[in-house]
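COURSE: Structural Biology Practicum
ASSIGNMENT: Worksheet 4, Part C
STUDENT ID: 0417
INSTRUCTIONS: Below are two proteins. For each, the amino acid sequence is given first, followed by its structure token string. Answer the questions at the end about the second protein only.

PROTEIN I
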Amino acid sequence: MEHKSVLLKESIEMLQIKDDGIYVDCTLGRGGHSSEILKRCTKGHLYALDCDQSAIDESTKRLSGIGSNFTCIHTPFERLSQVLDEQGVSEVDGIIMDLGVSSPQFDDGSRGFSYRYDARLDMRMDQSQELDAWTVVNTYSQEELTGLLKSFGQEPFAHKIAQQIVQTRRKHPIDTTFQLVDVIKESLPQKVLNKKGHPAKRTFQAIRMEVNGELPQLESALHQGLHRLAVGGRLCVITFHSLEDRMVKQTFKQVATPPKVNRRLPVIGEERLEYRLINRKPILASEAELAENNRAHSAKLRGIERLRNFENEAK
């Protein structure tokens, strides 16, 4: 299945790309956002990051057909600041983060991301790392499994699923996605199994997020991105579930809200803020996009702009 970048038009418009700007695509994937940035940034430079080497290989070919002013780097985006330092870049005009798993990763059954294909439990975005889904499922304690299913999957039956996983692996390892699906189904009451939607969705999401360290990586990258924005620069983030969106919303709000002050003192207004929210409510996919791309249903776009750099002003 061809990968369609979600909220592509809206996110590119939000970035307000300058033809001589410096931009970072933190999640290159199959190059949907990077391609549109490169078309508009003819005199500047694009740095595109991805921890999946296959994404780097595929997208390098695609971007080469548009221009040569780009650099693709195989790395997790939590290394954003280190990458920019290595490239000799102090600040950038825009950053895009399109979170989650891409369609090619889900649709490649051998990667073990999907409960629709039978494959070895893997779920690594970066296939050079050691921790994979098999290790999580077969070595984490029942308490650890329960905790991550609750935290990352928001799974109401976390305890029962974790308990069943531990009981099953005492007899034999849980090696494949379908074996894990069977364990999950054994853990759930019939009324839940009869509901719409796949019963393994929350568990697979939780394990994937654990394997790839998705929330800690996002938290780190958000703060790095905010710090690296030039004045007038914008950071745009597309999320696909509530945990990601909450983190983005809270991080943006924290830096774009005036501090509380004594009511008897003059109010600190917009002129003393370093950042401003581009949109207070998330931008959602249009009806037309939803009809074309089912993945867009849970997508939310938020953006923030840097108004001034207090560090530079203090120098």
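PROTEIN II
(use this one for the questions)
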Amino acid sequence: MIQIQSFTFNPFAENTYVLHDLTGEALIVDPGNYQQQEHDVLTRYLEERSLKPIRIVNTHAHIDHVLGVSFLKYRYELPFSLHPDDAPLLRAVKTYAPNYGFPAFDEPEVEQWLHEGDTVTFGSSSLRVLHVPGHAPGHLALVNDEQRFVIGGDVLFRQSIGRTDLPGGDYDTLIASIRTKLFTLPDDYTVYAGHMEPTTIGYEKKYNPFLK
């Protein structure tokens, strides 16, 4: 069984996720840790439980989701995975990071490009990859059908959706991604979003004002 632990990091209140199972292997999704205190919180969680992180996967490459990638790559010698359509967003972060108060941002190298239909594995667990653009052109969601959950990044929030006014964003594309990809999942699937608390597919179908 997959255990999901979330941490809220950086001034954007971004949710970083650690997924691990009984084998002790762990997947880190969207590491937003930047300050040393945030690094310590994350590494302490891993090390106190004797977890072995094996990979970093990002749903997308906006600054608040990639701040901790390089730290973790160097600390644990981890490969980093991203959708290729978000490569320009990743390259752009270093140009504007100082303006947001992150002068020490270190651009990470991507070892593996992920696409729709790929599978991300760790331990005895697996997640299937969906391409859900709109908030970002290469935005991914990670789905586990056995435990009925989605790591959804900044696509769908509780009674809200991801913003589309950033470079590469498009409102109609985002709504289409939600309706044709996420909303085809059963209502009881939990959505672990990139900000705020978790929600469910069924709740958002019923109450999300952007998707009436």
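ANSWER KEY EXCERPT:
Q1: The mean pLDDT is 98.
Q2: The two ends are 34 Å apart (CA to CA).
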